[in-house]
């Protein structure tokens, strides 16, 4: 019997790096292309059979990286050679995984409670800084269906007239790739006064909750082009673009939005004015996987419209209740929208007009002035700190559209991180906008309140369960919100409009797709409404019952 023979294979050593040595490459491998690699390369999943097909579609358009993509990296050698790229000639959209498990098993496997996967402070922001370099987009693509968050098709925020002309259509995934670094804004002027924050509300918890009190004071909504301060600044050529913080935050956080919206853009001479037709209402669970659905029942207190109205009133009342009216903080100039006789009936707030330079080079003149708003001032060891005040609200954790929210009265004191994480998931757009508004205003802190219904079946009585401070930029970082990306979006829209002739334009969010469209409209299209329309009157027109009970 012959003895077994073991022969070592031939080893071709490359002294200059990894991979085969070109000088000693065997003849049989000469014509095969080689893609470089390194030890740092990481292999992701070849296939993920754990996620259903629908979930794959729902998460495909998100700007933040999902947990399913945690193994994917762009490493050395990526894209260096397309020789090994395989492209199927047919559409594979019809491919599906055969799953013979019962419906109950699937529900148990795929259901998440929400808010338990991450806590504030554990996620690092994945910003793509360009060091002042601005990435431009070619706006020729058409929109896709994107995330499907509701079976019911939503209506647009405004009816598109037959004479409206589509000029551009921009997909959200393209907006999320824009970046522009912008320096801190400079104060132009400050108006109004503030009351100091009542620190007793910092001691409120679920065991010592306080009822939310009604408040009859009003807040004027004045759009950009009707603002007398902005009108004067435009005459003095202090800037070329003008907006308010609510409008600008909507534009900067556009890729996170799901509900429809529109912005009116007026081009007058070399000036641009970003306007809103009416005041913004506060959305509820807009970004939830299963958001509230409009059923057509006007008595449904958990419909999107009813919840939005409720949240708007809660924010209005909460901001007034947590301040102490015994001491004022005066700014250099009076409120520009009311006489001294009206101040008694107005919500105290301060307006700060700030200028930002969006130019990429010194030759460019792209200065933007934004009217920002502050809600209160708090005394600290370092002096007075200007703050904004917002309120999250809980309606019914068991109802449709709750988005897996935890019961606040049971979890808020012991698991606040999980509560906040769930809110960040379900209200990504709203919270990002609040952070951006605070940053634009130069606020030192953002005060966040937690307000819940006294009874889940009654939307007219509420209780304050707690409060919390955040630094605006830290809060934005926890949400993976890139302010640079927001400025890139603003600059893109400005560039598009500056190339157009004088006139009126509308930037419209598609009600059911992650797409915005820029329309050219006739000059007299929905003339900007009366600016001296207070929040109370506007809400009363929408829902007499809610206002009456407050």
TrEMBL record:
Pfam families membership: eIF-3_zeta (PF05091)
InterPro entries: eIF3d
Origin: domain of life: Eukaryota
Ranges where the record places region Disordered: 100-155
One Gene Ontology molecular-function label: mRNA cap binding
Compositional bias segments (type: Polar residues): 110-134
GO CC annotations on file: eukaryotic 43S preinitiation complex; eukaryotic 48S preinitiation complex; eukaryotic translation initiation factor 3 complex
Keywords in alphabetical order: Cytoplasm, Initiation factor, Protein biosynthesis, RNA-binding
Location(s), subcellular: Cytoplasm
Example of a GO biological process term: formation of cytoplasmic translation initiation complex
Homology family: Belongs to the eIF-3 subunit D family.
Record remark on domains: The RNA gate region regulates mRNA cap recognition to prevent promiscuous mRNA-binding before assembly of eif3d into the full eukaryotic translation initiation factor 3 (eIF-3) complex.
Complex and partners: Component of the eukaryotic translation initiation factor 3 (eIF-3) complex.
Function of the molecule: mRNA cap-binding component of the eukaryotic translation initiation factor 3 (eIF-3) complex, which is involved in protein synthesis of a specialized repertoire of mRNAs and, together with other initiation factors, stimulates binding of mRNA and methionyl-tRNAi to the 40S ribosome. The eIF-3 complex specifically targets and initiates translation of a subset of mRNAs involved in cell proliferation. In the eIF-3 complex, eif3d specifically recognizes and binds the 7-methylguanosine cap of a subset of mRNAs.
PANTHER family: EUKARYOTIC TRANSLATION INITIATION FACTOR 3 SUBUNIT 7 (PTHR12399), EUKARYOTIC TRANSLATION INITIATION FACTOR 3 SUBUNIT D (PTHR12399:SF0)
Protein name according to UniProt: Eukaryotic translation initiation factor 3 subunit D
Organism: Gigaspora rosea
């Amino acid at each position: 019997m012959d003895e077994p023979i073991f022969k070592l294979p031939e080893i071709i050593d490359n002294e200059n790096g990894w991979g085969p040595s070109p000088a000693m490459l065997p003849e049989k491998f000469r014509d095969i292309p080689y893609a470089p690699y390194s030890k740092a390369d990481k292999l992701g999943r070849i296939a993920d059979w754990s996620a259903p097909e629908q979930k794959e579609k729902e998460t495909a358009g998100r700007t933040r990286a999902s947990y399913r993509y945690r193994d994917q990296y762009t490493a050395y050698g990526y894209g260096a050679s397309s020789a090994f790229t395989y492209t199927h000639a047919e559409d594979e959209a019809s491919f599906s995984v055969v799953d013979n498990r019962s419906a109950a098993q699937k529900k148990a496997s795929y259901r998440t409670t929400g808010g338990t996967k991450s806590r504030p402070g554990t996620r690092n922001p994945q910003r793509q800084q360009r060091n002042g370099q601005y990435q431009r987009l070619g706006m020729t693509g058409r929109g896709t269906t994107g995330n499907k968050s509701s079976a019911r098709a939503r209506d647009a925020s405004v009816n598109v007239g037959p004479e409206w002309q589509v000029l551009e259509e921009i997909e959200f995934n393209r907006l999320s790739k824009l970046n522009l670094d912008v320096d801190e804004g400079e104060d132009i002027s400050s108006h109004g006064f503030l009351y100091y924050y009542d620190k007793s509300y910092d001691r409120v918890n679920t065991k010592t909750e306080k009822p939310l009190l009604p408040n009859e004071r009003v807040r004027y909504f004045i759009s950009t082009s009707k603002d007398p301060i902005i009108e004067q600044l435009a005459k003095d050529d202090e800037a070329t673009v003008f907006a308010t913080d609510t409008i600008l935050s909507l534009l900067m956080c556009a890729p996170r939005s799901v509900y429809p919206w529109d912005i009116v853009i007026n081009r007058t001479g070399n000036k641009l004015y970003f306007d809103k037709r009416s005041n913004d209402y506060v959305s509820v669970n807009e970004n939830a996987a299963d958001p509230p659905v409009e059923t057509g029942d006007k008595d449904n207190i958990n419909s999107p419209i009813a919840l939005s109205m409720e949240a708007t009133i809660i924010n209005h009342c909460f901001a007034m209740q947590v301040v102490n009216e015994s001491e004022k903080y005066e700014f250099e100039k009076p409120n520009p929208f009311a006489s001294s006789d009206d101040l008694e009936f107005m919500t105290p707030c301060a307006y700060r007009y700030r200028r930002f330079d969006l130019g990429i080079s010194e030759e460019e003149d792209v200065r933007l002035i934004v009217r920002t708003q502050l809600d209160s001032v708090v005394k600290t060891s370092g002096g007075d700190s200007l703050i904004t005040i917002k309120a999250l609200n809980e309606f019914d954790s068991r109802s449709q559209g709750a988005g897996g929210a935890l019961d606040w009265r049971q979890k808020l004191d012991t698991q606040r991180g999980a509560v906040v994480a769930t809110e960040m998931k379900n209200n990504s757009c709203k919270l990002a906008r609040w952070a951006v508004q605070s940053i634009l205003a130069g606020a030192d802190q953002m005060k966040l309140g937690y307000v819940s219904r006294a009874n889940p079946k009654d939307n007219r009585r509420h209780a304050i369960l707690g409060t919390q401070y955040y630094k605006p930029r830290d809060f934005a970082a926890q949400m993976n919100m890139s302010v640079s990306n927001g400025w890139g979006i603003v600059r893109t829209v400005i560039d598009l409009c500056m190339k157009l002739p004088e006139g009126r334009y509308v930037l419209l969010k598609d009600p059911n797709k992650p797409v915005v469209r820029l329309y050219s409209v006739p000059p007299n299209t929905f003339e900007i409404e009366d600016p001296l329309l207070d929040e109370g009157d506007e809400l009363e027109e929408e829902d007499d019952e809610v206002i009456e009970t407050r």
